[in-house]
Write a structure and sequence with these properties.
single chain; 130 residues; mainly alpha; 5 helices; elongated
Length: 130
């Protein structure tokens, strides 16, 4: 790995760990703080508990991928590609609701999407070198 790749690797590790921590805490807090009746509310043709659980699990997968990248496990890039796909899918599907409910959260989601899209070529290239 050259210096540029090491810098990208370090940035992605720190970014994925911080985003995974943010999503895990946010998903867990939403599950804990929401009333039980509101978790299974079906008024908007949406059951919020599934969104909260998926946010929690994607956060855990993202933290795991950051730890694996930090440890330089040989299959870490493949798992990080998988976690990045989950991260991108979650943020794309929930972006509309975030724009409607909380516009400041949508800014964070757009930043996550931009960084994940920019990191895909690096992850694919590193995954092919194994």
């Amino acid at each position: 790995m050259n210096r540029k790749d090491r810098n990208i690797h370090l940035f992605l590790t720190i970014f994925l760990f911080s985003i995974g921590l943010y999503m895990s805490i946010n998903g867990g807090w939403n599950i804990i703080s929401t009333d039980q009746i509101d978790l299974f509310d079906f008024d908007n043709k949406d059951i919020p508990i599934f969104s909260f659980i998926s946010e929690l699990l994607i956060g855990v997968a993202t933290i795991l991928s950051a730890v694996l990248m930090w440890l330089r496990v040989h299959w870490a890039y493949g798992f990080t590609l998988f976690a990045s796909g989950l991260l991108m899918a979650f943020n794309l599907t929930n972006l509309g609701r975030a724009i409607y409910d909380n516009p400041t959260k949508s800014i964070v989601m757009v930043i996550i999407l931009i960084v994940v899209l920019q990191s895909l070529p690096f992850l694919i290239r590193q995954n092919q070198r194994i």
